[in-house]
Amino acid sequence: MGDLMHALPALTDARSIWPEISFDWVVDESFAEVPSWHPAVRNIFTSAHRRWRTNLWQSVTGGEASSFYKELNRNDYAVVIDAQNNIKSSAISFLKSGPVHGMDKASVAEQPAFLAYKYRHFINKTQHAVQRQRQLFANALGYEVPENEIDYGLKPDAFEKSEFQIDSPYLFFVHNASWTTKLWPEECWHELIRLAEGEGYQVMLPGGNETELQRAAVYADSHSNAIALPKLGLSTLGGILQKASGAFCCDTGLAHLAAMIGVPAITMYGPTSNKLIGTAGNNQEHLVASTETFSCSPCYKRRCNFHGGNVAMSACMQAFNPENAWALLKAQMIRK
Q1: Cα(209)–Cα(60) distance, rounded to whole angstroms?
Q2: 177 Cβ contact partners less than 8 Å away, ≥ 6 residues apart
Q3: Are 271 and 301 in contact (CB under 8 A)?
Q4: Which H helix or E strand runs over 232?
Q5: What is the pLDDT of residues 3-54, one digit of tens each?
Q6: How far is CA 119 from CA 33, 108, 135, 320, 334, in A?
Q7: By percentage, how much of the chain surpasses pLDDT 90?
Q8: Each residue of 121-162: pLDDT tens digit?
Q9: Mean pLDDT, the chain, as a whole number?
Q10: In 25, 68, 140, 198, which residue has its Cα 20 to 30 A from 32's Cα atom?
């Protein structure tokens, strides 16, 4: 999800050069809402990598893969860009006829994705992901990257109005992540929710799968100010985030959604690097693991090996103190 959001400022750049330019976007069905938020996107084509991978034979014989291929090649394009530059996206690029642009061998996120591209561009890997996307689009379309700050270019009505009517101010706590090493201990979330309650805040707790929904329900059952949200679409969650006073997040897609909207937010980075993939936007701050204490951070591992261990929960994330986290979030909300 975060990769898709990182590409949106590149579309805004292109529109600043050619106001009438439009894009068709191929995206996994799980995240099809993201491209719809930008006015430069004309058509959205959905793929289904997860379903196709688990039942490849049915996808082929049932006609879904064939239909996708025909839809993908229905139109000719002046330029085709693989913005994700990984194995999954390069497989789609390989199926698309036309002048496909992507990152070169030294720049791609995953090898050997570069083999799918006719035009290969060197994009410095030490840059933030948003800047890498801006540079790729500029190279492919033939302009210089604008010097302005990143602009996600969201439509004014990109997000749906929330049905939740809450009179008191509320916070949005993103307790989920795709890796267990990026999670914050449950006792820390309990303490942060208690601290928020002490200052009159309700807390919204999202969940994208059954495990996350159950965890949110446990927090909500334990605290009168906590509300476990049902499974909601990204546009609906964006509508809830827009009205939040602040957000506190693990490193996951919803943290980037908060950054796009500009809600005051703190995002934790232990096993991952905030310099390369950190939330980017207005009112964002990062809580980063101490490299003096954790010289292995960022390790990008799904098991923590600190001090020779092999555990699911990372030591660097456990070191983040709820009281300090609350103080940082309050300061961020004041600064806005």
Answers
A1: 28
A2: 183, 250, 251, 252
A3: yes
A4: none
A5: 999 999 999 999 999 999 999 999 988 899 999 999 999 999 887 766 555 6
A6: 29, 13, 14, 44, 47
A7: 78
A8: 999 999 999 999 999 999 999 999 999 899 999 999 999 877
A9: 92
A10: 140
pLDDT in tens, 153-166: 999 999 987 776 77
Q: What is the pLDDT of residue 105?
A: 96
Tell me the domains of the chain and their CATH numbers: 2-141 (3.40.50.2000), 170-335 (3.40.50.2000)
Vertex 305: Cα angle to 110 and 291 (nearest 5) = 80
Distance between CA atoms of residues 46 and 188, nearest Å: 38
- Asked whether the bond before 298 is cis by omega within 30 degrees of 0, the reply is yes
* Tokens, residue 37: 């938020």
Q: What confidence category does residue 57 fall into, taking pLDDT thresholds of 50, 70 and 90?
A: very low
Task: Write down the pTM of the prediction.
Answer: 0.92
More confident residue, 336 or 329: 329
Helices (H), the chain: 2-17, 33-36, 49-54, 56-61, 64-72, 87-95, 129-141, 186-198, 210-222, 234-242, 253-261, 274-277, 315-318, 322-335
Residue 28, number of CB atoms within 10 A of its CB: 18
Distance CA 304, CA 308 (A): 9
318 CB-contact burial (10 Å; exposed 0-12 / middle 13-18 / buried 19+): middle
Which residues make beta-bridge pairs with 173? 248
Residue type present at position 188: C
Q: Residue 111: how many CB atoms within 10 A of its CB? A: 11
Least confident range from 1-5, 66-70, 203-207, 274-278: namely 66-70
pLDDT at 64 over 80: no
For 142, list phi and psi in degrees, rounded to 5: 85, 50
Q: Interior CA angle at 307 toward 306 and 311, to 5°?
A: 50
Q: In which residue are the tokens 């642009």 written?
A: 101
78: its two tokens? 């002046």
